[in-house]
Specification:
Distance between the termini: 25 Å
Strand content: 5-15%
Helix content: 25-40%
Radius of gyration: 16 Å
Number of strands: 3
Largest sheet: 3 strands, mixed
Number of helices: 6
Strand order of the largest sheet: 2-1-3
Length: 149
C-alpha cells in the first residue's frame, strides 16, 4: 500500500528516479546484477570497487536482454516498474554454504534476526552503499532503453 500511495502522489518525480533498489530476499549476499545493454557500461564502472572488497565474494555484472517480467516482481516494486522506473535487483547466493533457504522461513514467525548471517549482511550493506552511491553520482540517469518487455 505504501508504494502504491507514493507512486500515485509523486507521478511528477518518477522520471527522475534512476533505479529502485529493494533488498528483501533474505540474508544471502549480492553476487551480481543482470542489466539491460544500455545500462551495462554504467554498472560495470559503478561495481568495479565491489570486486575489491572481499575476493571470496564474487560479483559479476551481466548483460541481460530485459529486466525480469513484471509478474515475478513483488507488488511494492511492480507499481514503480509499470511506470518505467528501473528496478534492477541484485543476484544473491549462499556462497559460503550456510545452507540458508529463505523460502523455508519467508513471511512466517520463524523469519527472525536470529536467522540472519552477519558476514553476509555486512557485505550486502557495503555492496548496497557502493552501488547506490555510484548510481546517484552518475552524471545522467540510468537508461530505460530495453528495460522491460
Amino acid at each position: 500500500l505504501g508504494s502504491t500511495a507514493w507512486v500515485k502522489a509523486n507521478k511528477d518525480k518518477l522520471d527522475k528516479i534512476s533505479n529502485l533498489f529493494n533488498r528483501d530476499g533474505g540474508p544471502t549476499p549480492p553476487v551480481g546484477l543482470n542489466v539491460p545493454k544500455a545500462m551495462y557500461q554504467d554498472f560495470v564502472k559503478i561495481c568495479a570497487p565491489v570486486k575489491k572488497i572481499h575476493p571470496d565474494y564474487p560479483f559479476e555484472v551481466k548483460e541481460a536482454g530485459h529486466s525480469p517480467n513484471l509478474p515475478n516482481l513483488p507488488v511494492r516494486i511492480i507499481v514503480f516498474a509499470v511506470e518505467a522506473v528501473p528496478a534492477i535487483a541484485f543476484n544473491e547466493k549462499d556462497i559460503k554454504g550456510y545452507n540458508f533457504n529463505y523460502g523455508e522461513i519467508w513471511h512466517t514467525e520463524r523469519d527472525t534476526y536470529s536467522k540472519s548471517i552477519p558476514e553476509y549482511q555486512e557485505h550486502a550493506a557495503t555492496v548496497m552503499a557502493i552501488v547506490t552511491l555510484g548510481v546517484a553520482n552518475l552524471e545522467h540517469l540510468l537508461s530505460r532503453e530495453g528495460l522491460y518487455k
